[in-house]
Amino acid sequence: MAHPGSARFFAALDQLVAEGEIVIDRPKGKPHPRIPEVIYPLDYGYLAGTTSGDGDGIDVFVGSAPGAGVAGVLLTADVVKRDAEMKVLVDCTTAEIVIARDFLCELGIGGHLVKRVSGSL
């Protein structure tokens, strides 16, 4: 069973996603703006009306499993941008979680996965 703090964390993310609008500004197949040879493997965007560490909306990767909800988060530290962020994995399969993490590695950022575990609701 997950720690109670983990349950509250994921419940808060569920609420932000449920009450917010996901804006996809970088659809699957689009090149990255700074590194055009790297292509987005999943839809990528942000939660409108939220604020992340960089002052923009909370970043999200959206997968192909509608209704699956928040599967986890990827924690990143980007020395070029000089920031740390959280990227929420919404409606992602296990394979898509790996794909998102690999994508961040291609960007030279990497990411630490915090996967939602059973019992974290």
From TrEMBL:
InterPro entries: Pyrophosphatase_sf
Name of this protein: Inorganic pyrophosphatase
Gene3D superfamilies, per database record: Inorganic pyrophosphatase
SUPFAM superfamilies (alphabetical): Inorganic pyrophosphatase (SSF50324)
